[in-house]
Amino acid sequence: MARGEELYRLCSQCHGATGEGNEALQAPAIAGQHAWYVAAQLRKFKDGVRGKHPDDAAGLRMRPMALSLKDDADIAAVAEYVASLPAQAPSRTLPSGNAENGKTLYTACATCHGPDGAGNAEMKAPALVRTNDWYLLSQLQKFKARVRGASPDDAEAALMLPWALSLADEQAMKDVLAYVQTLR
Asked: ∠ at Cα 48 (39, 5), nearest 5°?
């Protein structure tokens, strides 16, 4: 845990000392996120599966950070440390979502992310309730634009792509995210 805390100091410049995130830097809240998910995403950034698309400024910033982790032991240490940080319920920032409409749309999301939005290791789906709504919206937009999920080396993201495409427009995305807020 000490090694993870030491390595996390670099991460804290964007994600915050307690993993609370920073919208201005497009760095999501990560405190309490599952270690298996954090480790998988760090590996994807390190291996260039994420963070290479020219339209993904936040991903392009994240890739060099992941490259600073020298091996799988460092990745595991950071992931365990992040998972140990007390999870916070990020505040709602998207003003125009309709949670009632989102509840119906979320039925498809629950298949992987769980009915409570807590994530599912078997499906490799992260907890949604520990992540900022603005970040989730940006990720849905990236999936719809094929900025994320189009890499043949990212099987989990490829599974997410059709679900994101099934959301008719940005309002549908905001509705789903408004519903996710009710799960917190």
From this structure: 35
pLDDT, tens digit, 9 for 90 and up, residues 71-123: 999 999 999 999 999 998 888 888 889 999 999 999 999 999 999 999 999 99
Distance from the Cα of residue 125 to its chain's centroid: 9
Q: In sequence order, which residues have a C-beta less than 8 Å from that of residue 5 and are 6 or more positions away?
A: 81
CA–CA distances in Å: residue 25 to residues 136, 139, 173, 176: 15, 15, 22, 24
- The pTM of this model reads 0.93
Burial 114-147 (b: 16+ CB within 10 A, else e): beebbbeeeebbbbbbbbbbbbbbbbbebbbeeb
